[in-house]
Hints:
Elements: H1 2-27, E1 35-44, E2 47-54, E3 61-68, E4 71-78, E5 84-86
Antiparallel strand pairs: 1-2, 2-3, 3-4, 4-5
Amino acid sequence: MVITALFNHGARERRTVERIVLQKLAKNGYPETALLMETGLQKAEVGYRLDFDTWDTNEHYTALATRDGKQWRVTLQIGDQAPQALH
């Protein structure tokens, strides 16, 4: 029972974070249909990460979602550039 509850909570959190990341990417000019997901949303050391490319560039993108209190903060790193916050 406890294991099932933990699994359900983890799956719900993952879906929530994935939705937040995709919404913030779309709001910042990266529509979901243009993303080529390489791995899908993965658990990272400090949150979740999403690695992807787009149709129009050869750059590699990494979105990182980290928890800040009760909110999720999303940053985007393009290639070797410094990560930038998505609002």
